């Protein structure tokens, strides 16, 4: 009997069955079974627009100035409603003519513009003819009240007065940067 050398341990093929034939893949519910997985960036693509929107909102919150913060604190007047804070300065009127100006708030407030006096509660408006340029304004209101207006030539509901249209200085010294626009 001839001596046969020992072949060593039997190696199993890397893929397929013991005979080296490839095995069929099982059908699954996944449409891309067997396809390599995508990277984490591709799988989380939907987070990028949300992060960009949140970043822009945070930037706006950090850079924007509340319109009433552009007016200087003023001394209280006996005619001001109780529990109000007074602010004074200038408002820029781009074109002379009829302006609808007022305020929106929860409590009683008082607005003085170009010699006119407006008092009220809630949403209150006044139509007044004003010359072009800076005009003196004084606003005594409870916290949370906002100035609204419809500038000359605008129609429709009044809009909030942008901070760029207000100045803490009196009309003779008032300076405005891009009046009528909201920076952010």
Descriptive overview:
There is one protein chain. The protein has helices spanning 40-43, 47-63; strands spanning 72-73, 85-93, 97-113, 116-130, 133-141, 146-150, 159-160, 166-167. It contains two helices and eight strands; from the N terminus they run H-H-E-E-E-E-E-E-E-E. It is mainly beta. The model has no long low-confidence stretch (mean pLDDT 82). Strands 1, 2, 3, 4, 5, 6, 7 and 8 form an eight-stranded antiparallel β-sheet that branches.
Summarize the structure.
By secondary structure, the chain is mostly beta strands. The protein is 11% helix and 33% strand. Strand 3 (97-113) and strand 4 (116-130) form a beta hairpin.
**End-to-end separation:** 97 Å
Q: Would you count the extended β strands for me?
A: 8
What is the rounded Rg? 36 Å
| Largest sheet descriptor | 8 strands, antiparallel
Number of helices: 2
Spell out the helices and strands N to C.
Answer: HHEEEEEEEE
| Amount of helix | 10-25%
Low-pLDDT runs:
none
Which secondary-structure class do the elements indicate? Answer: mainly beta
User: What fraction of the residues are assigned to beta strands by DSSP?
Assistant: 25-35%
* Gross morphology: rod-shaped
Overall pLDDT level: 82
Descriptive terms for the model:
184 residues, mainly beta, eight-stranded antiparallel sheet, 2 helices, rod-shaped
What layout of secondary structure does this protein have?
Layout: H1 40-43, H2 47-63, E1 72-73, E2 85-93, E3 97-113, E4 116-130, E5 133-141, E6 146-150, E7 159-160, E8 166-167
Antiparallel strand pairs: 1-2, 2-5, 2-8, 3-4, 3-5, 3-6, 6-7
